[in-house]
From TrEMBL:
Catalytic activity: L-phenylalanyl-tRNA(Phe) + an N-terminal L-alpha-aminoacyl-[protein] = an N-terminal L-phenylalanyl-L-alpha-aminoacyl-[protein] + tRNA(Phe); N-terminal L-arginyl-[protein] + L-leucyl-tRNA(Leu) = N-terminal L-leucyl-L-arginyl-[protein] + tRNA(Leu) + H(+); N-terminal L-lysyl-[protein] + L-leucyl-tRNA(Leu) = N-terminal L-leucyl-L-lysyl-[protein] + tRNA(Leu) + H(+)
Keywords annotated in UniProt: Acyltransferase, Cytoplasm, Transferase
Summary of the function given for this chain in its UniProt record: Functions in the N-end rule pathway of protein degradation where it conjugates Leu, Phe and, less efficiently, Met from aminoacyl-tRNAs to the N-termini of proteins containing an N-terminal arginine or lysine.
The organism of origin for this protein: Phytobacter ursingii
Name assigned to this protein: Leucyl/phenylalanyl-tRNA--protein transferase
Pfam families named in the record: Leu_Phe_trans (PF03588)
Entry similarity comment: Belongs to the L/F-transferase family.
Primary site of residence: cytoplasm
InterPro entries (alphabetical): Acyl_CoA_acyltransferase, Leu/Phe-tRNA_Trfase, Leu/Phe-tRNA_Trfase_C, Leu/Phe-tRNA_Trfase_N
Subcellular location, record wording: Cytoplasm
SUPFAM superfamilies: Acyl-CoA N-acyltransferases (Nat)
């Protein structure tokens, strides 16, 4: 297996099965972050991730981390917190502020460069990228964003400036998503945070099978309309 250099003159990607085993899932480099290429990548189970100053790198890891929204794990402490939660949760109210929050709130640095921000803003304007916002009164305290593929949602990043804010974003979104027919959330690579919320690893082959099926299905037309998903008691 070898790393493929993408051309700016074609949107073609190699098969995800050609990805390297080490580092796990690295498939290709180069190309661009145009909406057409990004959408082509997501439709094939591929996503960009790279450090500032590096070329664009494209990944499709095996195994793949996913979360079944109907099986979102809520701990006892989170249940108690949510019963008296001070947070209000909205959808698609402040995409730009959410991606900025994901960019800024990283002690270890960020891969979300200005070019990446611009690219996902374009996807948002086209109706493919979406944000979930968590507010304490009028202050944005957490959130997440990602890319929709039918009844599958590809989570990209989240941030939290208050206790349980990002957990609240994912929990409230998962419940609303499942209620309206959403079936799978892509978490890309498993980490301790997503594992604690119920994310699991499945073979890449199985993820791609789900993706091929779910991206052709549709959520209700109202689902991504800007609105409130949760109001504090």
């Amino acid at each position: 297996m070898r790393l493929v250099q993408l051309s700016r003159h074609t949107l073609a990607f190699p098969s995800p099965e050609a990805a390297l085993r080490e580092p796990n899932g690295l498939l290709a480099l180069g190309g661009d972050l145009s909406p057409a290429r990004l959408l082509m990548a997501y439709q094939r189970g591929i996503f960009p991730w790279f450090s500032p100053g590096d070329p664009i790198l494209w990944w499709s890891p095996d195994p793949r981390a996913v979360l079944w929204p109907a099986e979102f794990h809520v701990s006892r402490s989170m249940k108690r917190f949510h019963k008296s939660s001070p947070y209000r949760v909205t959808i698609n109210h402040a995409f730009g502020r959410v991606i900025d929050g994901c960019t800024e709130d990283r002690d270890e640095g960020t891969w979300i460069t200005p070019d990446v921000v611009l690219a996902y803003h374009r996807l948002h304007e086209l109706g493919y990228a979406h944000s979930i916002e968590v507010w304490e009164k009028d202050e944005l305290v957490g959130g997440m964003y990602g890319v929709s593929q039918g009844t599958l949602f590809c989570g990209e990043s989240m941030f939290s400036r208050r206790v349980n804010a990002s957990k609240t974003a994912l929990m409230v979104f998962s419940h609303a998503f499942a209620r309206d027919g959403g079936q799978l959330i892509d978490c890309q690579v498993l980490n301790a945070h997503t594992a604690s919320l119920g994310a699991v690893e499945i073979p890449r082959r199985e993820y791609l099978e789900w993706l091929r099926e779910l991206r052709l299905q549709k959520l209700p037309s109202h689902f991504w309309v800007p609105r409130e998903l949760f109001l504090p008691a």
